[in-house]
Amino acid sequence: MNQYHITYESISVExxxxxxxxxxxxxxxxxxxxxxEFTHGQKTVLLEYEAYIPMALxxxxxxxxxxxxxxxxxxxAITHRLGKVEVGEISVVIAVSSPHRDHCYEASRYAIERLxxxxxxxxxxxxxxxxxxxxxxxxxxxxxKPL
Amino acid sequence: MNQYHITYESISVExxxxxxxxxxxxxxxxxxxxxxEFTHGQKTVLLEYEAYIPMALxxxxxxxxxxxxxxxxxxxAITHRLGKVEVGEISVVIAVSSPHRDHCYEASRYAIERLxxxxxxxxxxxxxxxxxxxxxxxxxxxxxKPL
Lengths: 147, 147
Fold this sequence. Notes:
The structure is a homodimer.
Chain A: E1 4-7, H1 13-18, E2 27-34, E3 38-39, E4 42-51, H2 53-70, E5 75-81, E6 83-86, E7 90-98, H3 101-118, E8 121-127, E9 130-135
Parallel strand pairs in A: 1-5
Antiparallel strand pairs in A: 2-7, 3-4, 4-6, 4-8, 5-7, 8-9
Helix pairs in contact in A: 2-3
């Protein structure tokens, strides 16, 4: 059961959350990102995610390590989905746990911001009348990728 | 499917989280409170929760309304367990969702702090060598309750 996971299948919130269970941890927070229908008034049909998987896993793991250093003992588990993710479906679940809730809120927020910053996952927004790649498509991981 | 629920059964994180699903909400956060084994070095065997149920439901609903006023459109669902809750088991799940994650973090934190402040739920900590009632046992809701 890997704490950091990339999958083309549906994500179970319960499964990711259970990875951070610990008898001394009284609080956990699961952040869930889903495909939403409207962004700035534009109707999204679906999102499509691609990743440079080895580097994505490595950077997810790095986020967990950074969290553990910043908030001693906080456990982290992250699962990100790839491929087509329809409206209402889950693209990412970030679970953290800690003895007390303060650290959970801080660590959870850190994890999602850091994920968007360093994890090489590209997102294609597909609307009724077009599409656009977003995210790390301009990053250093795959400079030959067409825009 | 009530957004605010009090139960003597195990709580499903997925079930509570699904209550705040909305096609325009791209982020949701579920806060999960569990019984932890050690508190200030003292070993807890289990926690036991009691509530003045009608007022507990009313105040949970009030928290949802307050959140909706403070962060327009944020959806909230809260399930709290009563009775015996063993180490590692869930006592409360608070789910919130919003188009964007900022409001989720703020609303989720607000909900748990407010819950502890106004919801008449009593907690008995049962250790290997004793027990103690905590929480609202001194509140105005049930002044005749034995300590």
